[in-house]
């Protein structure tokens, strides 16, 4: 029996995560859940948006299923973590809950499958690609400072080690799932040292996988090609900031963030999450689309070897989407979150 730390999060998080958990239970997967508080509710109850007990739960269970959390824009908002781990005092200071979780749990690669589903409106067809985003460094980690009142500075760090482990995970994933090509996105024409190192390291790893073709694109050209011919891409290897941006762009190719799952993988822990926002304006109204968290749950089940249960959920969801009788408003239907969930469970 696999135990999963469930992180409902903020806004619509409890509704969509609750939907995913109900479907996972109904699938027959050998999984049990341990729920923890993170985000605004945790801040009210514990005085911090990310209690140390949450990290300890995920480290103990090795798995987490996470809903969206809110983070303020701008200002000096930080999440401070102080704890003792393996007899050593550790301190961390992070700009968001998501970054804090990824760094504290050493979740070094973000995996974002992007594909068309029947019944989900999109401008494109036959999109089926996977994005591998390095998760631990680059500009996105928020290593920045004010030089004076009028000047701010951010530091971009790229290392061979972090790039190599992400690239290797990506190529191994492509090999395991029968995919044929990896495209490395970069800006090495301008950032010759940092992105140059990222590109060179990715190409070096590609040499260990002769059965997988590898090419590269300057990031702006890659974005252009993704909106012209997305069906031509298979796997994308990207540094942290570009990976964040391109992942959301790619979600837009297949219907938006509401249909895009995500996984953060580390050496000992893995966290599966919806990548959309907490949408507080519709929280508690039974209209949120839980598809992104459901598909993140499918990724989690595949990760732990519950392949049959994952396939059943994916097939049931696909049927419900294709029939369009019990889908949420954003998918062109009139069903609420609960009715959508019940329809999927009925198909199981």
Q: What do these coordinates show?
A:
The chain has helices spanning 13-26, 40-46, 52-61, 97-104, 160-176, 194-206, 219-228, 240-253, 291-303, 307-323, 337-347, and strands spanning 2-7, 31-35, 63-66, 79-85, 88-94, 109-115, 128-134, 144-148, 151-154, 181-186, 213-218, 235-238, 261-265, 270-274. The chain has 348 residues and is an alpha/beta fold. The chain has a domain at 1-110 and 259-348: Isopropylmalate Dehydrogenase (3-Layer(aba) Sandwich). The strands form three sheets. It has a ten-stranded mixed sheet, sandwiched between helices. Helix 1 runs parallel beside helix 11, helix 7 (219-228) packs parallel to helix 8 and helix 10 packs across helix 11.
- What is the top-level CATH class of one domain? Alpha Beta
* N-to-C SSE string, H for helix and E for strand: EHEHHEEEHEEEEHEHEHEHEEHHH
- Overall mean confidence score, pLDDT: 94
Distance between the termini: 21 Å
- The coarse overall form would be globular
């Amino acid at each position: 029996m696999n135990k999963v730390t469930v992180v409902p999060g903020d806004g619509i998080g409890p509704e969509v995560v609750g939907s995913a958990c109900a479907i996972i239970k109904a699938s027959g997967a050998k999984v049990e859940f341990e729920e923890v508080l993170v985000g605004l509710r945790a801040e009210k109850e514990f005085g911090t948006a990310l209690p140390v007990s949450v990290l300890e739960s995920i480290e103990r269970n090795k798995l987490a299923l996470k809903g969206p959390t809110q983070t303020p824009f701008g200002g000096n908002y930080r999440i401070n973590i102080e704890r003792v781990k393996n007899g050593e005092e550790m301190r961390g200071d992070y700009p968001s809950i998501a970054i804090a979780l990824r760094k504290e749990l050493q979740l070094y690669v973000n995996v974002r499958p992007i594909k068309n589903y029947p019944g989900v409106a999109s401008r494109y067809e036959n999109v089926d690609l996977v994005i591998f985003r390095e998760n631990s460094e680059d500009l996105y980690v928020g290593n920045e400072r004010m030089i004076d009142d009028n000047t701010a500075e951010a530091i971009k760090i790229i290392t061979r080690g972090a790039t190599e482990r992400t690239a290797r995970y990506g190529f191994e994933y492509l090999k395991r799932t029968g995919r044929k090509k990896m495209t490395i996105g970069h800006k090495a024409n301008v950032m010759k040292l940092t992105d140059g190192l990222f590109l060179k390291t990715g190409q070096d790893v590609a040499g260990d996988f002769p059965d997988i073709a590898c090419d590269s694109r300057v990031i702006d050209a890659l974005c252009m090609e993704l909106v012209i011919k997305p069906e031509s891409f298979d796997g994308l290897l990207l540094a942290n900031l570009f990976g964040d941006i391109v992942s959301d762009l790619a979600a837009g190719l297949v219907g938006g963030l509401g249909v895009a799952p995500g996984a953060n993988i580390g050496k000992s822990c893995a966290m599966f999450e919806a990548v959309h926002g907490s949408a507080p304006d519709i929280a508690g109204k039974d209209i949120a689309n839980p598809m992104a968290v459901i598909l993140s749950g499918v990724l989690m089940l595949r990760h732990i070897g519950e392949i049959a249960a994952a396939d059943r959920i994916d097939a049931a969801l696909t049927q419900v989407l294709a029939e369009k009788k019990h889908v949420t408003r954003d998918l062109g239907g009139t069903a609420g979150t609960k009715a959508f969930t019940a329809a999927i469970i009925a198909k199981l």
